[in-house]
Amino acid sequence: MHGVHGHGVHGAEGALCAEGLTRYRQAVVKGCTSKEDVPECLLRLGLLVTPPDDSGVLVPVAPDVALAGLVRPIEERLERQRGDVRALTDSFSPVHAIYTVAKREHQGWATEIHGERVIGSTLAHAVRSCRTELMTVQPGGRRLAYDLDGLDHLRGGVRHRALFQHAARSHSATLRHIGELAGAGAEVRTLGHVIDRLVVVDRTVAYVPGAAGDDGRTSALEIRQPDLVAFLAQVFDDAWERATPVAPDTSRAPEPAVADDLRRATARLLVAGHTDEAIARRLGISRRTVAGRVARLSAELGSGSRAQLGYLIAVSGMLGDGVR
């Protein structure tokens, strides 16, 4: 077809010009056309060809036939590329095995990951690879830059249970994210005080925060030791059972049960001797909010000092078996 086969036809090159459309129609009606002043687009797309019995004319080719001739070499190239991908994937199988064994033998079952960008890409890959179950814990009212945002894993049928602190219910951006998760099918609950950030994928690998370096850079640990991952999953399950569900259309107004939970959590930490700043950090709220709650507790119990307030809380029955 005049050099069309085997060569890509892309963009504007694949378009028929107005003159070409007119000439092609005439050729279809008459059964042939002369070779004089033939629009290049008809030859390039293989819509006019020279018949074997008459080299002086051009005959029209059915659009499906011409299109198949153009598409076939592209499909063949794609199939060759898919074969290359399969070959590369197969060639990496022993590499993966060597890497896994070497990690276990020389670095144990925990791999340290440095930097928010690397942590983010590692978590994103782990979540995309999730097949059955994803557990996530997000402490604090605000979310970090590398928190999980994509919902593709939910569309794939993965059960995602997301645990936040109660403080997230009063933070607009986080509340919107919670609504998106719940609306997409995730189960979302909140708790007054949660463990630190945690991601558990298919109960086979877990990610926990590492220590921040002297330069302020963050780090995380990828854990694959089965017993340790199982322990972290159990910690999550226990916290999940004590948490309060979040409806997809929840508002910023705290539910009575959540407000009571936060009140007890504040009282419990106060009795344990924590400062307002430490309580705020643990509950993911502001120091001013903690100070307000402490003041209300003091007024309610008639306390004249912080030490007395701790004693009055302890003997009041406020921290009973229902403490979360």
From TrEMBL:
Lineage top rank: taxon: Bacteria
Swiss-Prot/TrEMBL GO biological process terms: regulation of DNA-templated transcription
GO function terms (MF aspect): DNA binding
Transmembrane segments: none
One Pfam family matching this protein: HTH_23
InterPro entries, per database record: Sig_transdc_resp-reg_C-effctor, TrmB-like, WH-like_DNA-bd_sf
Protein name: HTH luxR-type domain-containing protein
Lineage, uppermost ranks: Bacteria, Bacillati, Actinomycetota, Actinomycetes, Kitasatosporales
